[in-house]
């Protein structure tokens, strides 16, 4: 074989080896896996529980609430992420192909903005169930999805304010509990939408990401929280499945739209819905205890 051909063959093998190394080392399923372009959800929701700790760790109450989820789901692996381990995770998992995302994430100084972003990032990469520390579990996670939807549902969400709030009320999904298969394009759509919003704010206010404050960002619910999550998810479902998303309010039973399963308000937010006296309401799946640790001037606990 001519020397030039040998060199070309060796070079090609080295390139292939490098690609396979990056593929396996970073858990990347091609460029699409971290760009959101064509990533495909896995066959099942992984048995993983995700929690994000603040600098103060677990309080007595939050330990009791999280334990209720862990004890009710013994075959699930519970992961408690600190500020440091979450930063390291995002840097390692997304740094190779989305350094722009990592730069913004690591630069954010408002705790709740970062916590919101982390839940979407870890659910996209790993899948499982994300819960806030003030959520307790009333039913085993494996019972959350009705049998007829188990194969098709790649994201499971629940209404916060739904029954009894009228037609003009802007509804939103809870973000204190979200279930997802890894690789959901809808979860990635939320991430990209948040990044666009933060960049627009930074340009409009002429500040770097490190200088963003609660006052500059505005309503957290709109910036990174439930309303942003709801808008982005429903828009993604409509575009992905080329469908008009309607008939999803005032729910009394789960409804599948595309591959997103929407649970009635009683599932994740029973106390926020107005069912009226004497109405038989199914049992909740989780209870949110509204500890509200992020609702201070800093947007969360500070170290």
Automatic annotation (TrEMBL):
| Signal peptide from the UniProt entry | none
Give the CC-aspect GO terms: mannan polymerase complex
UniProt-listed GO biological process terms = protein N-linked glycosylation
Question: Which InterPro entries is this protein grouped with?
Answer: GlycoTrfase_DXD_sugar-bd_CS (IPR007577), Nucleotide-diphossugar_trans (IPR029044), Och1-like (IPR039367)
- Molecular function, one GO term: alpha-1,6-mannosyltransferase activity
The text of the family note is: Belongs to the glycosyltransferase 32 family.
Q: What is this protein called?
A: Glycosyltransferase
**The organism of origin for this protein:** Podospora aff. communis PSN243
């Amino acid at each position: 074989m001519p020397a030039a051909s040998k060199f070309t063959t060796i070079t090609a093998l080295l390139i292939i080896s490098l690609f396979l190394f990056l593929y396996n080392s970073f858990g990347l399923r091609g460029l699409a896996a971290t760009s959101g372009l064509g990533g495909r959800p896995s066959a099942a929701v992984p048995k993983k529980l995700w929690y994000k700790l603040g600098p103060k760790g677990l309080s007595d109450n939050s330990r009791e609430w999280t334990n209720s989820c862990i004890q009710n789901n013994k075959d699930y692996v519970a992961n408690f992420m600190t500020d440091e381990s979450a930063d390291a995770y995002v840097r390692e998992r997304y740094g190779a192909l989305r350094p722009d995302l990592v730069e913004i994430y690591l630069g954010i100084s408002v705790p709740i903005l970062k916590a919101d972003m982390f839940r979407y990032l870890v659910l996209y990469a790993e899948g499982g169930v994300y819960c806030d520390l003030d959520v307790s579990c009333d039913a085993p996670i494996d019972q959350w999805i009705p049998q007829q939807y188990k194969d098709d549902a790649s994201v499971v969400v629940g209404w916060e304010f739904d029954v009894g709030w009228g037609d003009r009320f802007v509804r939103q999904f809870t973000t204190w509990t979200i279930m997802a298969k890894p690789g959901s394009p809808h979860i990635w759509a939320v991430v990209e939408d948040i990044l666009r919003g933060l960049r627009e704010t930074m340009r409009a206010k002429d500040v770097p990401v490190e200088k963003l404050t609660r006052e500059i960002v505005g309503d957290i619910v709109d910036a990174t929280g439930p309303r942003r999550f709801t808008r982005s998810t429903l828009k993604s479902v409509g575009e992905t499945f080329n469908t008009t998303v309607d008939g999803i309010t005032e729910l009394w039973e789960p409804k599948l739209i595309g591959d997103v399963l929407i649970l009635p308000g009683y599932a994740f937010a029973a106390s926020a819905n107005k069912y009226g006296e004497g109405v038989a309401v199914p049992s909740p799946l989780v209870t949110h205890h509204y500890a509200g640790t992020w609702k201070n001037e800093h947007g969360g606990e500070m170290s």
